[in-house]
Amino acid sequence: MTAVLLGFTACRGGGGASGGTGPYMVQTSADNPAPPTPNTINANPAIAYNPQYLTVAPGTTVTFNFFGVQHGVTFTTPGSPNNIPPTMNASVNVVFPTAGTYNFYCPIHNYMTGYVTVQ
Ligand SMILES: [Cu+2]
Prior knowledge:
Immunoglobulin-like, binds copper (II) ion, 38% strand, globular, 9 strands, mainly beta
């Protein structure tokens, strides 16, 4: 019985022709928005940063977009750029001159977190 179950499990990843909820499920454009613009973090109405994590080269200007819902950026890493206070319907450019990982959260939704890695 155990051998049968293991065999079944091992086969699940290979076929995928039956549709359903696997990784090959077709998504609509509404489910799967276009990838964000390079060096841009969108603070979404869905209460998340998109992308949540971003890697850039030293000296890069990162654009934070705040549209639809008020969000901000509060950095928690020493040496971070200045915080962005709660903002709505505007973009704010932030320069990251120095290598490091800069953690941040939203001052309104403190479970909304992300980081920028500069390397
Ligand atoms: Cu927020």
